[in-house]
């Protein structure tokens, strides 16, 4: 089984599905504070910045450990690394139900955040079973981020029935059960033992400027998805005055499609190319964020018949519809970025997926904190979307400078960088878009 071609497609699909299930379970636990943080915030009297740090703390650990776990996956195999990860993370998850002080929540959040690094384990592991359909396979695996939506359904129910302490206890048990199921159904990693290069040589690929460009893309599509997944329940609760259960349900309008449609993003990337999908995804997100950024506004216009008042703002359902569109955009973008990675770095998937995932995770860590700071400073709830709007604009400029000026977004084949310009090592290689 040293060659992935020898694995029957049916068994490869089983590996894909069980690994996706394990990743979804990890994502449920990773996003836990997005819901239980609301009653915890009330208990501890936290402001918006402190709440942002509470929800972001697990994301930090998951981001920082993606690179080493990606390297360990190449060296020891995805099966054993994922199994160990699930078991180890169940411990701090269970202990967090007994926390009473803010620093305890932060410390345990750092420990249980390790589950977020499961993405860097599953990505190279799954990719090695699908050498010819990596875009589709990584899209299906990436659908595990729908665990964020599952958390929106499960956690509010547990909170209302048993209190927030029951949520981490149930999630810890689920992680242990998932670990057993994964070990039984998964196959040994066909790439285990192949990575014999020293660590320095494995990390040498990080000097490639394309890696850092993909980091920028992923920091907004995945980082933005992660940040909004933990931020939206309290946003709906405060801006539209829903209950915790109703706010979580509305927030699922964003996180659920982003998970389920990521596989579609993988298929689109296989069909049209990672460049075309990423370019149009960024434009769709930019338009959505432009509209979402506008705060609830009351205007008084002085007319010849006296003042006339107007209200400008999105209703809850219009807001949820735009969040749905934004979630779909981010889902396709997450898949297209890793289509880039799978095509450009097939022999360094572990370290490259680790560093790109690290960038996405760091985005998911920093953004909720920045959301809270901006809210405390401005008092405007939609300030979080203003921030994301600016970041997407930077990504669009980067994509235009590095690729759009050189390659047709709609066309049948690649175009030269410029007339008379030699194709050097610094030119970005782009796959055909149609």
What can you see in these coordinates?
This protein is mainly α. The chain contains 18 helices and two strands. A two-stranded antiparallel sheet has the order 1-2. Strand 1 (297-303) and strand 2 (306-312) form a beta hairpin. Helix 12 runs antiparallel to helix 16 and helix 12 runs antiparallel to helix 18 (383-404). It starts with 8 loop residues before the first helix and ends in a 30-residue tail after the last helix.
What's this, in brief?
This protein is mainly alpha-helical. 71% of the residues lie in helices and 3% in strands. The protein has one domain: Growth Hormone, Chain: A (Up-down Bundle).
List the helices and strands and how they pair.
Blueprint: H1 9-30, H2 33-44, H3 48-64, H4 66-76, H5 78-95, H6 102-112, H7 118-127, H8 134-142, H9 147-162, H10 166-185, H11 199-203, H12 209-239, H13 244-260, H14 262-272, H15 274-292, E1 297-303, E2 306-312, H16 316-344, H17 349-378, H18 383-404
Antiparallel strand pairs: 1-2
Helix pairs in contact: 1-7, 1-8, 1-9, 1-10, 2-3, 2-12, 3-6, 3-12, 3-17, 4-5, 4-7, 4-17, 5-6, 5-7, 5-10, 7-8, 7-17, 8-14, 8-16, 9-13, 12-13, 12-16, 12-17, 12-18, 13-16, 14-15, 14-16, 15-16, 15-18
Count of discrete structural domains: 1
Mean pLDDT: 81
Structural class: mainly alpha
CATH class type: Mainly Alpha
Seen as an oligomer or otherwise, the chain set is single chain
* Unreliable residue runs: 1-5, 410-434
* Rg (C-alpha, Å): 22 Å
Strand content: under 5%
CATH H-level homologous superfamily name:
MFS general substrate transporter like domains
Biggest sheet statistics: 2 strands, antiparallel
Q: How many distinct helices?
A: 18
**Biggest sheet, spatial arrangement of strands:** 1-2
Share of residues in helices: over 70%
Question: In CATH terms, what is the fold-level topology?
Answer: Growth Hormone, Chain: A
CATH architecture: Up-down Bundle
């Amino acid at each position: 089984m040293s060659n992935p071609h020898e694995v029957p497609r049916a068994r490869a699909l089983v590996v894909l599905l069980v690994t996706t299930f394990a990743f979804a379970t990890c994502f449920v636990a990773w996003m836990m504070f997005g819901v239980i943080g609301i009653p915890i915030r009330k208990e501890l009297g936290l402001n918006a910045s402190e709440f942002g740090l509470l929800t972001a703390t697990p994301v930090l650990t998951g981001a920082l450990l993606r690179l080493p776990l990606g390297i360990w996956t190449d060296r020891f195999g995805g099966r054993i690394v994922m199994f160990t990860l699930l078991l180890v993370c169940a411990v701090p998850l269970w202990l967090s139900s007994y926390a009473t002080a803010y620093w305890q929540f932060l410390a345990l959040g750092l420990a249980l955040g390790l589950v977020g690094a499961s993405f860097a384990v599953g990505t190279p592991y799954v990719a090695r079973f699908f050498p010819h359909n990596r875009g589709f396979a990584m899209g299906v695996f990436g659908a595990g981020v729908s665990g964020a939506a599952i958390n929106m359904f499960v956690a509010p129910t547990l909170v209302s029935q048993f209190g927030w302490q029951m949520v981490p206890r149930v999630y810890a048990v689920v992680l242990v059960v998932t670990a057993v199921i994964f070990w039984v159904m998964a196959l040994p990693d066909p790439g285990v033992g192949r990575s014999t290069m020293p660590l320095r040589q494995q990390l040498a690929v990080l000097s490639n400027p394309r890696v850092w460009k993909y980091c920028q893309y992923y920091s907004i599509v995945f980082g933005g998805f992660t940040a909004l997944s933990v931020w939206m329940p309290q946003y709906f609760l405060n801006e539209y005055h829903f209950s915790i259960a109703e706010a979580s349900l509305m927030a699922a309008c964003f996180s659920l499609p982003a998970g389920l449609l990521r596989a579609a993003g993988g298929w689109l990337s296989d069909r049209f190319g990672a460049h075309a999908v990423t370019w149009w995804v960024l434009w769709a997100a930019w338009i959505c964020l432009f509209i979402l950024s506008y705060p609830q506004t009351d205007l008084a216009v002085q007319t010849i018949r006296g003042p006339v008042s107007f209200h400008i703002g999105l209703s809850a359902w219009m807001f949820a519809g735009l969040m749905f569109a934004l979630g779909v955009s981010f889902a396709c973008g997450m898949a297209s970025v890793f289509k880039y990675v799978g095509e450009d770095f097939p022999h360094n998937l572990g370290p490259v997926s680790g560093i790109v995932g690290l960038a996405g995770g760091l985005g998911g860590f920093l953004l909720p904190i920045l959301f809270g700071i901006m809210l405390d400073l401005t008092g405007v709830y939609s300030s979080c979307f203003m921030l994301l709007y600016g970041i997407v604009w930077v990504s669009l400029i980067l994509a235009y400078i590095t690729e759009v000026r050189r390659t047709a977004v709609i066309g049948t084949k690649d175009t030269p960088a410029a007339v008379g310009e030699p194709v050097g090592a610094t030119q970005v290689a782009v796959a055909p878009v149609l």
